[in-house]
Write a structure and sequence with these properties.
With about 230 residues, the protein is of the alpha/beta class. The chain has one domain. The protein is built from nine helices and six strands. The chain has a six-stranded mixed sheet. The longest helix is centred in the middle third of the chain and has 18 residues. The C terminus is likely disordered.
Length: about 230
């Protein structure tokens, strides 16, 4: 395991792709958690005396001990909620900015090219974040500005609508939001399949939240040992 501090946006930009394995629960943040994160971002971006806001860790599996260095997808063990929520904020902001760039590095084109998409890739590799089940199809539709599927993810849809409303309420004063996003920091935790036990880490990280059922644990134990292409 290797853990380092990183700016959230820098981490997104350098990472090839995040994949949420099928054994993980679906996206579950409610408006309460989204409101809290939004308020934290705006507060941080509005205060010159605040240099950073810590949003937790992103834990993922890669083939070696070193930080992101290849184009292989990264399997997320912990951090789905934060990754997805900030992706929704970035998409809402990109739609509102269009060709404007109120803060250097923050235009619709740059947000999509750096943090939402891999513009030189094709197929699913084109997307920075791949969720599971209806979350996946709903998020991909949003990041492509396409119509939502017939049965969209409720959480993805509701939270995106919430952030879209919040961004619109800023009118054209996007500085606090952009600066706040730029100040977000996380702990980048890279696991090695050879030296770390992702099942043990997954159970440990989830032990403080809603208890995992025996069925959850058995399913996770089996699926974590399969190649991602065989987990569907």
């Amino acid at each position: 395991m290797r853990a380092t501090e990183a700016k959230f946006l820098d981490f997104l930009q350098k990472s090839p792709q995040f994949v949420i394995p099928i054994y993980q629960r679906t996206y579950s943040w409610t408006k309460r958690e989204c409101r809290q994160l939004w308020d934290d971002i705006i507060r941080t971006g509005s205060d010159l005396d605040i240099s950073a806001h810590f949003v937790g860790s992103i834990v993922y599996i890669e083939e070696s001990l070193y930080q992101v260095s290849s184009q292989s997808p990264l399997l997320v063990i912990d951090g789905q909620q934060r990754l997805t929520t900030i992706t929704l904020i970035l998409e809402a902001l990109a739609r509102q900015l269009r060709d404007n760039e109120p803060v250097p590095g923050f235009s619709a084109k740059k947000l999509r090219s750096y943090y939402l998409l891999n513009p030189l890739e094709d197929g699913e590799r084109r997307f920075k974040l791949l969720l599971t089940q209806t979350d996946k199809t709903s998020l991909l539709a949003l990041t492509q500005q396409k119509s939502l599927p017939a049965e969209p993810s409720m959480r993805i849809t509701e939270n995106f609508n919430f952030f879209q409303k919040q961004v619109k309420n800023l009118d054209t004063n996007f500085s606090a939001l952009c600066n706040g996003l730029a100040k977000l920091v996380l702990v980048d935790v890279a696991l090695s399949r050879d030296q770390d036990n992702p099942q043990t880490i997954f159970e440990s990280m989830n032990s403080t939240g809603r208890a995992l059922s025996q069925a959850d644990l058995i399913r996770n134990f089996i699926l974590m040992r399969l190649d991602p292409t065989h987990q569907a």
